[in-house]
Write a structure and sequence with these properties.
Blueprint: H1 5-29, E1 35-39, H2 46-62, E2 66-70, H3 77-84, E3 92-97, H4 99-106, H5 114-117, E4 118-132, H6 141-150, E5 156-159, H7 165-177, E6 182-185, H8 189-198, E7 203-207, H9 212-216, E8 221-225, E9 250-258, H10 263-278, H11 280-288, E10 292-293, H12 298-319
Parallel strand pairs: 1-2, 1-3, 5-6, 5-7
Antiparallel strand pairs: 3-9, 4-7, 4-8, 4-9, 4-10
Amino acid sequence: MKLARREFVRLAAGAAALPITSRIAGAQAYPARPIRVVVGYAPAGGTDIFVRLIGQPLTDRLGQSLVIENRPGAASNIATDAVVHAPADGYTLLGFDAAAAINATLYEKLNFNFIRDISTIGVIRGPLLLIVHPSVPARSVPEFIAYAKANPGKISMASAGTGNATHMAGELFKVMTHIEMTHVPYRGAGPAVTDLLGGQVQVYFGSMPPTIEHIRAGKLRMLAVTTATRFATLPDVPAVSEFVPGFEASQWFAVGLRKSTQAEIVQRLNKEINAILADPDMRARLADLGTTVFPGSAADFDKFLVEETEKWAKVVKISGAKAD
């Protein structure tokens, strides 16, 4: 029996709409279970603090809990690799930072291409701080440079991992000031700050979240911020560029997921995180930690990541830095 033309058209149109309907239904049902966030550093580092800071508000908005999994190592490449090879269903997110842009040049062989494989859905950013242990007899950038030149190779410089922004900021500083410092990489900012507090290392280009309370308590000494100009939250703290013209380095923290995830899910997460970061109380908390909100879409963040990758590629090449 032949189908009437009108019935055939109706059925064909319905069949064609099925994939779209299915995608929309899937996005509307998301999330239906807890979401895992893989962080590429040990607990208490800047990336970990950022993820935990937005964790509860995001749980409240999504109706599902966030389970944070710290997987430090290889300058966050281990965590990134895990997320890139997880299902692209929105249930595995990545907590990362500027190392993602640095690693593209620092590491010759990676099992992923960050720009191609990861969509960024939320970002905050701020300065790094030039911090020394109180045993270092320097209270300004010029005094520190003079001390380092008088003690070549005797200063140990901590970082949150090879290729991390805390590492590359130090490498850039070494190149531009012609000083020698021994790089000591750690598996995250938490362990690096612990040894800095203990005096096992003498200097650290660290972000504010894991260090600012120790600075306020007088356990560490801040000499300068690394942004091109002074940071609004710390107006009395000079910028390194005031003494080393042209010096600039900053840190940022982000959340992302596989780029092949349904666009509706990416947009939902981006919308929710932007809303969380726009809250006045959250903005005040971020300012207290020395960071500012960087609102934008996933497409905006993709462009930002390309720019950061190009910028840090130059630093890696100039410094001659190598992955361990």
